[in-house]
Specification:
The structure is a single chain. The chain has 61 residues and is an all-alpha fold. It contains 1 helix and no strands. The protein is flat and about 55 Å long. The relative contact order is 0.08.
Protein backbone atom coordinates (compact mmCIF):
# COMPACT_ATOMS: atom_id res chain seq x y z
CA UNK A 1 0.00 0.00 0.00
CA UNK A 2 3.06 2.26 0.00
CA UNK A 3 2.98 2.80 -3.75
CA UNK A 4 1.26 5.73 -5.42
CA UNK A 5 -2.02 4.51 -7.02
CA UNK A 6 -1.22 5.51 -10.60
CA UNK A 7 -3.73 3.17 -12.26
CA UNK A 8 -6.52 4.20 -9.91
CA UNK A 9 -5.94 7.87 -10.68
CA UNK A 10 -5.69 7.16 -14.40
CA UNK A 11 -9.01 5.31 -14.23
CA UNK A 12 -10.57 8.16 -12.31
CA UNK A 13 -9.35 10.71 -14.87
CA UNK A 14 -10.53 8.59 -17.79
CA UNK A 15 -13.94 8.07 -16.21
CA UNK A 16 -14.28 11.78 -15.54
CA UNK A 17 -13.41 12.63 -19.15
CA UNK A 18 -15.92 10.06 -20.40
CA UNK A 19 -18.59 11.51 -18.13
CA UNK A 20 -18.01 15.06 -19.35
CA UNK A 21 -17.92 14.00 -22.99
CA UNK A 22 -21.09 11.94 -22.52
CA UNK A 23 -22.88 14.83 -20.85
CA UNK A 24 -21.96 17.53 -23.35
CA UNK A 25 -20.91 15.73 -26.53
CA UNK A 26 -23.58 13.10 -26.92
CA UNK A 27 -23.35 9.37 -27.58
CA UNK A 28 -21.14 9.53 -30.68
CA UNK A 29 -18.47 11.62 -28.95
CA UNK A 30 -18.67 9.32 -25.90
CA UNK A 31 -18.06 6.22 -28.03
CA UNK A 32 -15.18 7.85 -29.93
CA UNK A 33 -13.44 8.82 -26.68
CA UNK A 34 -14.08 5.35 -25.23
CA UNK A 35 -12.64 3.50 -28.25
CA UNK A 36 -9.60 5.78 -28.53
CA UNK A 37 -8.96 5.44 -24.80
CA UNK A 38 -9.01 1.64 -24.98
CA UNK A 39 -6.70 1.66 -28.02
CA UNK A 40 -4.32 4.00 -26.21
CA UNK A 41 -4.39 1.74 -23.15
CA UNK A 42 -3.39 -1.31 -25.18
CA UNK A 43 -0.68 0.60 -27.04
CA UNK A 44 0.71 1.68 -23.67
CA UNK A 45 0.69 -1.92 -22.43
CA UNK A 46 2.57 -3.09 -25.51
CA UNK A 47 5.11 -0.27 -25.18
CA UNK A 48 5.75 -1.12 -21.50
CA UNK A 49 6.16 -4.81 -22.27
CA UNK A 50 3.00 -5.94 -20.51
CA UNK A 51 1.73 -7.68 -23.64
CA UNK A 52 3.94 -9.64 -25.99
CA UNK A 53 3.00 -9.27 -29.62
CA UNK A 54 3.38 -12.51 -31.60
CA UNK A 55 6.03 -12.56 -34.28
CA UNK A 56 5.02 -12.72 -37.90
CA UNK A 57 7.43 -15.53 -38.73
CA UNK A 58 6.30 -19.07 -38.04
CA UNK A 59 8.48 -21.20 -35.79
CA UNK A 60 10.69 -23.77 -37.43
CA UNK A 61 10.91 -27.16 -35.82
Amino acid sequence: MGEFPVWALAGLAFGTVLGVVGAFGGLNAFLIVLVLGVVGFFVGLVMEGGVRMPTLHPRRQ
